[in-house]
Amino acid sequence: MPIYEYICKDCGHRFEALRSMKDADSPIACTECHSDQTRRALSLCYSQSGGHALAGSTGGGCGSCSGGSCSSCGHTH
Ligand SMILES: [Zn+2]
What is the number of structural domains in the chain? Predict the structure, then answer.
């Protein structure tokens, strides 16, 4: 079962949840403040890089997961 990362819009808390793929985009409560104002982070790679900055950059990918693991963050090499 894949691990997804979520970010709470209310308190900014970031947490991971082990969910089946079909539940990935369904609402999940924040583990910190129990708000349901959460959104799924695009990927660990993006979030660790501070957001969307790397999405349009040239080069081989997201740096923090160079190599084969990039399949999990949507980059195509
Ligand atoms: Zn929260």
Answer: 1
